[in-house]
Amino acid sequence: MFKHAGITITVLGVLIALMGTGCRRHFCHHSHMTPEKLEKISGIIESKLDFDDAQKAKMKKLVKRISDEMPAFREKRETARDLMLKQFESDAFDKTEVSKTLQGFEKDVPKMRELMVSAASEFHSILSPEQRKKVVEHMKKHKEKCKNNS
Prior knowledge:
6 helices, elongated
């Protein structure tokens, strides 16, 4: 669950998958998504789908919205990772501390999910019917590729 809770599962993860740049088993390499990487991926998507100026402007706003949310989610994810590392380095595992930290992290899951759904919906609305067909083709190819790599 926490693997999917990072900001990358927001539209970024979806968009990366749509463009076939990696399977889930390689997702950890994309988990440290920066605004710069997000903009680069956005540019690739815009190019592959031949966005017009209006679509590029909408995509830029979407990327900005996602980028603005990234630091808070990343910080909480890193806090949880650091805590788990600390616990396994210790002679004793403090279940109460881990549980408390993870509960705080889990409180943000609905917000992350809403961001993901909202961003995916916004991305969908940017696309023309022909572009959506291309996205579906990429999604199917990616699904098959991941299926074969698992």
